[in-house]
Structure formats: structure tokens, C-alpha cells
Amino acid sequence: MPRAPCAIEKIRLSAPNPARGAVVPNVTRPKGFQVWNSSVLATDFDLDFGDPAETLRPIRIVGTLGGTFSGKVVVGSDAEIKGLRAAVSELRATVGRGRIPPSAVTIRYARPHGTDFAANFRYLASAHRLEALDEVAPDVVGVRVKEPVLVRYWTGSGKNRRRVTKSMSLTSPGVKPVFGAVCPVWVTVNIPADAAPGEYTGTLTITADGEKAVQVPVTLTVCGWTLPEPKDWHTFVDLIQSPETLAMAYEVPMWSDEHFRLIERSLEFLGRAGKKTVYIRMICETNLGNAETMVRWTRKPDGTHAHDLSAFERYMDLVEKHMGKPPVVCLYIWDKFLERMASRGQWESKQQKAALGALEGMGPEVTAVDPVSGRTSKLQLPPYADPKAKALWKPASEGIRRSMKRRGMPDSLMLGIMCDYLPSERTFQDLAEIYPGVPWVSQAHNPPHKKVARHVGYTSTVFYRVAPYRDPSLQRLYGWKEPQLRATFWRRTRDDWPITTFRFMGEMTLAVGERGFARIGGDFFPVLKDKEGRVVGRIPARYVKSYWNNLNITMNLLAPGEHGPVATSRFEMMREGLQECEARIFIEHALTDETRRAKLGEELAKRCRDVLDERIRFIRRGISTYVASGHYQDWAMYGASWWTAPGVFGSHWYISSGWETRSRRLFDAAYEVAKRLGHE
After folding, report:
1. Residue 560: which residues within 8 A CB-CB, separation 6 or more?
2. Which range has the top average pLDDT, 19-33, 104-118, 482-496, 562-576?
3. Which strand ranges, in their side-by-side order, compose the sheet holding 236-240?
4. What confidence tier does 342 reach under pLDDT thresholds 50, 70, 90?
5. What is the Cα–Cα distance from 274 to 576, expressed in whole angstroms?
6. 320 DSSP assignment
7. CA 370 → CA 31, 302, 566, distances in Å?
8. Rounded to whole angstroms, what are the CA distances from 156 to 162, 163, 166, 311, 371?
9. Cross-strand bridge partners of residue 108
10. In a 3-state reduction of DSSP, which class is residue 361?
11. Mean pLDDT (the chain, rounded)
12. What is the DSSP code (8-state) at residue 125?
């Protein structure tokens, strides 16, 4: 079916001339300074304005002890806004003496960063997402004048078929747009673990030069269940950090003090989301886009090499500080350009084939440092099969293993990264002599076959768990129970998908039987430039020889700020979703354990099951495309549409579906379970 048989093309509301003075138009930006409400699940754009017929309502936030939760309003004007500032009062309990100080609340100002898949459905001009959350208020929020949206479509048939590019009229359907200045203001509460549960109220005061202060009520619901620390969360979160991206974006030397300051800022954010993986670049020019290695080699007078582990040690110090002891510390020591034992050339371009052919039979490169000048260069090492390789690598291996043992993480070490291309059995054996007993990481479309699987300790796949996201009456799966360390790579998901996608990411992967999600870029914002100096791509596309095609990382949940990476709205919603995953897992652990369930009693067990099932049913609708035509993977009824297509229409529905109430019911249920089990 090429097209849906029935659709609404246009809706227009108009009033006769005598009534025009009594109708307040809301089809274009009004004059003056505005503040309006916006759900944290709704995308804000630089073309937005407040509906003059709507009153300003309180910011509503629902959370639980030890967690971080947000709300927001949007500020706008038809003129530039100078001196925008926001401040929050103490949050006071409506019953009792509970207080949450302003120091526990973070105010952030969203600026443009990226686009949105659904923007062209709503705007005639090109709209940009306002999602990079700066903690420093902007001096000026300028008016952004935009260009019309370009619409591309095919017309004609056969030999006459051609692609047409058409510029939309900015005045359609007869209303001239008024561009303006727009800035969402985020209110993020870090709820103390020792706060008193209950309802809290406060005030957000927004000021700007020449404008009357606007006071917005803030309501906070604090539930009684206490979240564990992010390092102890159960959902497996593979958010990948990129030292190279930071060095290129901020133009700082690799492994300098300033570079490590930027790295720490990234790791601090990603650690708050329960990041479980670390990738140590041991060879040059991998798929993660690194020109240099973290371990540096220096040739000694006797011809042997010294291995400088200082960058590795400093990096791991930051990992421990912000992530605890992650279960996966992958030594990136192999990539497809070293050998191609599967799918040889099947998906490669001519350029890739030429680059890989030139490397046939060669070993990896590492970073060498001149002991006199301090300059770096690439050192070509022999293939791992060469007996000389083992002697060269063994000292570095022993130093890393001593460090990991000292840190209490000897079992976290893994080797990688296998992809759709696999090392030979000989390579497995050779590297097992250098790193005896250390398992591998596989990140591919499919899980490794049996002969290879015995080497694997952690695997992420695209196609293994594309099972339908079923109604609970048909099937219930518990990903956190999966004995193997296995996660889903959301290959088709992009930064411009609805924010709800990121909030649901953890809960959806658990519900289809996976431990979590994989290969999501943390700070992989675009840094590659073309010949004209325009930023055009992310760092995994840096080297032809290690280009993984559609397995490349295509997202970044952090954005470049003036002084380092900052969070995005997608990151914050992913984090809130992961907090809800913890409550879900806590309840499911009680429901699926015979002894614990007996302590709950049938009445509480049924209420908890109803709360969890209700969430699945609402999320199923919230991720739906509501499409019944086109490519089968986009269909609303196709089980894998939760990861193959952006559920734009489902997202809009979900925002107004009462999700905050369901979050409260989830946390309240977890609290009741904790009390019944004596976990208070």
C-alpha cells in the first residue's frame, strides 16, 4: 500500500468579521515578553511562542529520594532578550517541616543544538531544537530569523521520474511568521536521600532587562523510595566517551591538563547515567576515531620499548571517581583493518577496499614519543602472529593488569572490538598469550557464532532482540535477569528522534529481554570538517580503514558548551528513564522471587503488577508511529518499530497522557515493596 487511503490534509479555524475582535489569535507570535509552560518530554524550538489564550501553570516535577528530576518553562519575545536570569526559592513541604534548599536545584538555559525529525511537520521555516543545557545564563538571547523549509519529493514515473526540491511559503496558510528570541529554562532538582517524602512548593522567578519579573509556581512530589547510586544501577548502559572529540572540539593537546579537565566533565555527566563501560584505545586509527593511543611507547637505547601508562592511569582515576568500578574496561586492541575473516569485502566501498588492501598483512600502529623532543609519531608494530609482537606487548599488558588488580577491577578487563568482521582463531590464540583469560567485546549486527562466542564476555547486537514489544498479557521478559552480558545497539536511532525515545530506551530494552543498550555516543558531537571548514561529521568517520558503515556511532547525548560538554534534554530524559528502570527492577525482583513475593501478599503484588503492566501499555502507544503504509519497518503494528522508526505521533500523544502520575505510582509502589520487605 503506497499511501494511506484516508488522511486529514488541513484544518482551519476562522471567525466572521463581526467576531474578529472577540477572538484572540494564536497562530503567530504576540508582541512582548512571554513565559509559557512546556513538558520536559516536549521538544522546544527556536520558532516557538506561547499561546496567549493559555494561563501560566505551575512547573510540576515528580521524583523520588536520591534521584534527579526536571521541569521547565520557556521564555520568549518578539525582540532580543537581554540579562535573562532565573532563580528558585527554597522548596517547602506543604505538610511538616521538610525543606529542600536552592543549592539542591540547578537552573539551566537551553540553547540551539541540532534539529528534530518532527520539525517539518510543525513549521514552515527551518526549526532548531533548543536542548543544550547551559548552567550560565546567556547575556543576550537573539532573534533567530529562519529560512523556509525545503521539501524534497519524487514526481512522474518511469523515465520521467525526477526529484523535486520546493521551498515552502513562510506565509502559508496566509499568516506571516514573526520570528523571535526563545530560551527554555530548566529546573532540575537533586532530591536529597534524607528529604522528607511529600509535596513541596516553591517559586521560580524569571527576570530580564526592561521586563517585569515573572513568578512561576513550582510543585515537587517526593516519593518515599530511595534510589541507589548510579554506579549501582542494574540497567547496562554503554555510553561511550571520546577523548579525541574533546581535543578536536576545544583545540587542546591530547592528555594535557586542560584535556583531562574536559574529559572529567564528560565522565561526570555520563557517570550520573550509570555508565558501565570504558574503552582504552591501545592501537591507532580505530573506529572510535583516535589518532593516538592512550599507552605511549618510547624506544630505549637497547632497542626495547618503555610503556608510559600515565594517561591510562589518570583516565582510570577519573573513571573510578565518577563511575565506580565498571564491569567492562575494553582494551581496544583489534579492528577490522588488521584482518577480515568474515564478510570479506561484502559491504565495502571501493575506497574502503583500497585502504584495507594496502594494509594486508600489516600489524597495528601505536603512538611513539621521542624522549628528547617529546614529539609523537606512529610506530608500526608487527602482526600479533609474529613472535616479536608478544615480547613488545607483554610489558604493557602486565602493567595494565597490575593497575586493574590494584583498583579492584581485574575481572573488568576485556579485549576488542569485534564487529561484523572477526579476528582469526590464530589472533584469539596470540592475544590470549598476551592477555591470558581476558574475554572479548563484540559489537555487531548479530551475536557471534558458537565457535567465536566462547571468547566473548560482552556483546551488543542490532538484530538479536528485535522481538516485538509485546503487551504484558502475551509476554513478560526481564532483561535484568539475562545471565549473559548482552545489550541492544539502537542502530537506526538518531539525535533528531523524539525525546520520549531516549526516556524509554532503558525500559524498552529490559522489556524485550536485554540487559540494556549499547554504542550510544556520550560526547561524540560532530567535529570533522570538510575542505571549506564546515563541520560535517562525527569522529567514527575519520578513517576509511576503520569505517563500520551503519554500525558507526551516530548520536551524542552531550553538547559542546563554552567551557566543556553540557547535558542535553535527551540526556536528562534518558537519565530519568533509567531511574524509573531501577524502581521497575526493584519491584520485579520482589514479584519474581517466591520468598519475596510471599512477603508482599497477593493484594500488593497485584497492584504492583498492574502498575508495571500499565507502563508497558502506555509506552507501546508512546513509541508507535501510527503509520499503516510505506516501509514495513515503519508500521505501527510491526514489533520492531520501537527502534526502527521515530514514533513522532505516539510521542505527541504520550506527553499529554498523564505520564507524571504513572511515574508517581511506580515510585510509590517501590516504596510499599521496600517497606513490606523491611528495606527502609
Report:
1. 132, 249, 250, 525, 566
2. 562-576
3. 236-240, 516-521, 486-489, 456-461, 440-444, 413-418, 328-332, 277-281
4. very low
5. 11
6. H
7. 64, 15, 36
8. 6, 9, 15, 60, 67
9. 186
10. coil
11. 91
12. B
Q: Phi-psi category of 146—alpha, beta or left, where left has phi over 0 and alpha has psi -120 to 50?
A: beta
Beta bridge partners of 59: 218
For residues 83-112, one letter each, b for 16 or more C-beta atoms within 10 angstroms of the residue's C-beta and e for the rest, the string is: ebebebeebebeeeebebeeebbbbbbbbb
Please give the model's pTM, rounded to 2 decimal places: 0.93
Does residue 160 carry a pLDDT above 90?
no
Instruction: Give the confidence band of 185 by pLDDT, cuts at 50, 70, 90.
Output: very high
pLDDT at 345 over 80: no
- Distance (Å, whole) CA 79 – CA 164: 36
SS3 helix, strand, coil % of the chain, rounded to 5?
30, 25, 45
* 117 close to 497: Cβ distance less than 8 angstroms: yes
CB 381 within 8 A of CB 365: yes
Measured CA to CA, the distance from residue 23 to residue 26 in angstroms comes to 9
Phi, psi values for residue 665, rounded to 5°: -60, -35
- Give the HSE-up count for residue 561: Cα atoms under 13 Å, Cβ half-sphere: 22
Question: In terms of C-beta density within 10 A (0-12 exposed, 13-18 middle, 19 or more buried), how is residue 306 classed?
Answer: middle
Per-residue CA distances from 186 to 69, 231, 563, 574 (Å): 10, 25, 19, 16
Rg (CA), the chain: 27
Q: How confident is the model at residue 354 (pLDDT cuts 50, 70, 90)?
A: confident
**Model confidence band, residue 640 (pLDDT cutoffs 50, 70, 90):** low
CA separation for the pair 516, 510 (Å, rounded): 6
Smallest CA-to-CA distance from 61 within 217, 218, 209, 172 is with 218
Sole residue written with cell 579476528:
423
Contact 510, 479 (CB under 8 A): yes
**Residues with Cβ within 8 Å of residue 347, at least 6 apart in sequence:** 420, 549
Q: What is the mean pLDDT of residues 113-138?
A: 88
Predicted confidence band at 89 (pLDDT cuts at 50, 70, 90)? very high
Residue whose C-alpha cell is 526540491:
165
Locate all alpha helices (DSSP H) within 308-349, ordered by sequence.
310-323
C-alpha angle with apex 593: 588 to 599, nearest 5 degrees? 95
End-to-end CA, the chain: 56
* Whole-number Å distance between alpha carbons of 262 and 243: 8
Residue in this structure with the C-alpha cell 613488545, named with its chain if needed: 392
- pLDDT per position as a tens digit, 386-432: 999 999 999 999 999 999 999 999 999 999 999 998 999 999 999 99
Cell, residue 400:
595494565
Pairwise CA distance, residues 673 & 600, whole Å:
7
Determine the length of the chain: 680
Query: Which residue, 49, 113, 109, 186, is CA-closest to 496?
Result: 113
CB 71 within 8 A of CB 218: yes
